[in-house]
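hey can u run this one w/ arginine bound, need the structure tokens asap thx
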Amino acid sequence: MKFIKLLLLLFVIQTQAQQGGMWIPSLLNGMNETEMKNLGMKISADDIYSVNHSSLKDAVPHFNGGCTSEVISPKGLILTNHHCGFDAIQNHSSTEHDYLTDGFWAMKMEDELPNENLVVTFIVSINDVTTQVLDGVALITSEAEKQKKIQENMTKVSASFPKEAWQENKVRTFFEGNQYILFVTETFKDVRLVGAPPSLIGKFGSDTDNWVWPRHTGDFSMFRIYADKNNHPTTYSKDNIPYTPKHFLPVSLDGIQEDDFTMVMGYPGKTQEYLPSFAVAQIVNETNPAKIEIRDAALKVQDGFMRKDNAIKIQYASKYAGVANYWKKWIGESQGLKKSNAIGIKQNFEKDFQQKVITAGKQNEYGNLLAEFGKNYTEITPYAVSRDYFSEVVAKNTELLSLGYKLYQLEQVFATKGEQAFNDRKENLIKSQEDFFKDFNKNVDEKVFEQLIALYGNKAPKQFLPASLINADYKKLTTLIYSKSKLVDYAKFKTLLSGDSKSVLKKLNADKGYAFVKSLADNYNKNVAPKYDEINLKITALQRTYMKAQLELYPNSRIFPDANSTLRVTYGKVKGYAPKDATYYNPVTYLDGVMEKYVPGDYEFDVPKKLIELYNNKDYGQYADNGKLPVCFIGTNHTTGGNSGSPAVDAEGNLIGLNFDRVWEGTMSDIHYDPSICRNVMVDMRYVLFIVDKFAGAKHLVDEMKLVHPKKK
Ligand code: ARG
Ligand code: ASP
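ok here u go:
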């Protein structure tokens, strides 16, 4: 009896511990595979990654560097999120064909729409090259010289590692510079838009529901990869043919239930799971609050204008969404870090770490690490905060300032690279800023400027600010700049940039707006950046040693490398969660929930007529689950930005959902993963197929796929 209890206890500990982690697909053999099988997985590590035969990784390309996609037919059809395909959908839209509003469906291949600058990248193989990259590095003492040697070695391995002519080699660092991996990749450059639902489905709930569960968004769009006659990557040509993949994902019609195994494969961008407590304290107490306050002010101004004026709403909707996305994430992240006591947990770990260092007799190597971290984080804090103020106020959220900052960089290009480079960049700017000015409203930006510059002057660390900004009359300054500067209108902007470098630079420096940006940027480059970079280099080196120490001193821990935009596997279960007292969220939402949120005429919560009809008639075809239509579900998969569009597969590797977000209470998972409240959000494949087939009438696309019933066989 006791023995059984002990076994049970071990099992509980094990299943609790399994949550979280973003693993390298080529290294799943052993601990991960065992864990995955215990959770219910039926396939093997070799079915996920293999160089000898086709495997799951052959169906999961990186989508344009920032998102993930998956191949779902033998003819190169791929699926990603609506928000990942958004730019492509928008670029093909005009007032006559408004695909964002109405959706788009190619009814035959000839109608699929080519996209300039849209690529997908497959992983051919994953190879450890740590020995080659670190060759001769240990003997070098200067940190800067070390980094230089590493860069040289990386270039050398990249150039010499065997690959085919149409492939590329890329080396990436793992575990903060303790491991190096070379990826052989294939990048396809002819990727065409096949279909997208209307935004009222693909973006249903918009910013209000963003980062929130329960969720009811059909966040998907479809593309197709085209290749040359040899099935190799090439740029667009009308003679290209649909790509024949090495592997494509069958789509399950049986869906999921609570506690079912799920796995998500994709390209998570960045996590910081191994920071010391000092760094987390800096995020929670200093940098997040500053960034949130700045964006809060900018968003309030924009929202006020957008609600009153529809033209402004159209101009600012996409910008607003971009700024609001991380604003909202940081708020959730700070709350989650506090609620889960992340700093306390890190501090306890650090005590244990210190003890382990002593027990292992490694005081010389690792004994001072934490003290050094403490010292450097104290020192860097005011610089880090100043840096965030500069980047949030000047480089990002005030349009006049961010435009001015681009011109500041143009002036630097002249200083460092001369007339020709200056002219090239200038011409590019003139062209690219046309779109900027289409969506620019002087009155909106003027109000944003006034608010943000006051925050900058009043709240950023004073010792690094130009005297002109402290206790200034912000209102007067704003009026002066917005009435005098030529940076507020495209025609004036073009006159400012006409002529040779000498006359342009003269005009620029006489412009009140430009002169103001320049004073801020010069000041930042002199008083903040050099010291920040100097301390940050030390922190990076400490972090590398800290990581090495953890790998050495905790050989039996589940330590995974932080996300770095390379292919990873995360796994878990479909699971609800209890974010606060007396509150429990079920793991699945249904179309009924869309109708509960329905607000006729609202830009976030209106529902297309056709969808209401299908709902009223319960016309769900083969996609219903006990008479109801599933829309989204959540699970304990550890994901982050970049995982958008990632396939969620079942125990047998069939596609069951499309990852697109995380739950509000768990957005701190980039820094501290807490299995009790961290969940990823996926759209159910049955909702995707229902929209394609029943809503859009594009059944031919569903017919291209392989639909399976794993639970019914
Ligand atoms: N939060 C999700 C992610 O980080 C979705 C963002 C797009 N949606 C939006 N309403 N801004 O990408
Ligand atoms: N929405 C994110 C993305 O676009 C995913 C996440 O942060 O969970 O990649």
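DSSP finds 26 helices and 21 strands in the chain. anyway lmk if its weird
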